[in-house]
Specification:
Elements lengths: L3 H25 L9 H21 L4 H22 L1 H8 L3 E5 L2 E2 L1 H6 L4 H10 L8 E6 L5 E5 L22 E5 L2 E2 L1 H6 L4 H10 L8 E6 L6 E4 L18
Antiparallel strand pairs: 1-2, 1-3, 3-4, 5-6, 5-7, 7-8
Helix pairs in contact: 1-2, 1-3, 3-4
């Protein structure tokens, strides 16, 4: 027999826990999963465990399965809402915030999202920036990633800067994988088997079974890696005697 009181508990409690966890997450601040400290990791696990334990304690019997369904539905609805509504996206996911402008660190903005100087320096180094004066803008994205725009005098020169025309090469695609011909990729890119055969012969490929991977772009050359590579000077790892 359906117990409406337990059903209400199974629906009510996951909603409370979900809203609470989102609120606490927004308060804690922005960090990528790979940048979480041990303390951040433990805190996140603890919060999730407390929320799950609360629901499991308050909801009895198989009605706890209803709570799992409700939680999954809330995640789906949140994703749909943030995709369709800008205000909801800003409220739930947050907004980009400028932390460096014209080489100057904006401490007040960093303080608002609990973003410290060590995190800033680390993420700048990941962008090959070791000098604050080279930064025109550094923006902390909602997901915790740092986007950096260098000042024009520190940017790498591109063909566009030199007015050199270039052609798009497109993305590489597989033509042979583990000794097997990828016919669908050949057809999609209008590559004939005759052309491929001539290329393989020119590169001394005796059998497709000898090829581990062969890729190419529409404009680029054919790259081939053999299953048994004959290295002239094979390098060894520092920790053991096996070949890299």
């Amino acid at each position: 027999m359906l117990d409406f009181k337990e059903l209400y508990q199974a629906v009510h409690h996951p909603i409370i826990v979900y809203i609470l966890l989102i609120t606490l997450t927004r308060i804690i601040g922005k960090k990528l999963l790979g940048q979480l400290t041990f303390f951040d990791f433990v805190t996140g696990i603890t919060l999730g465990t407390i929320g799950g334990a609360y629901v499991a304690t308050e909801v009895k019997g198989y009605y706890v399965l209803v709570s799992a369904i409700i939680m999954a539905a809330l995640v789906y609805l949140t994703g749909f809402l943030t995709m369709k509504n800008v205000t909801a996206r800003k409220l739930i996911e947050g907004e980009p915030i400028i932390v460096v402008q014209n080489g100057k660190i904006l401490e007040d903005n960093m303080s608002k999202v609990r973003y410290n100087q060590d995190d800033l320096m680390m993420q700048l180094r990941e962008k090959d920036v070791f000098d604050y004066s080279q930064v025109e803008f550094a923006i902390l994205e909602p997901h915790g990633k740092l986007s950096v725009q260098k000042k024009s005098q520190y940017k790498n020169i591109t063909p566009t800067d030199l007015n050199i025309p270039t052609q798009d090469r497109g993305i590489s695609f597989e033509v042979i994988r583990d000794g097997r011909l990828q016919e669908a990729n050949l057809k999609q890119n209008n590559i004939s088997f005759t052309w491929l055969y001539n290329q393989l012969v020119a590169k001394n490929v005796k059998s497709l079974e000898d090829v581990f991977l062969a890729t190419m772009t529409k404009e680029g050359p054919l790259y081939i890696d053999f299953k048994k590579d004959e290295l002239v000077n094979p390098q060894r790892s520092e920790d053991d005697d096996s070949l890299i």
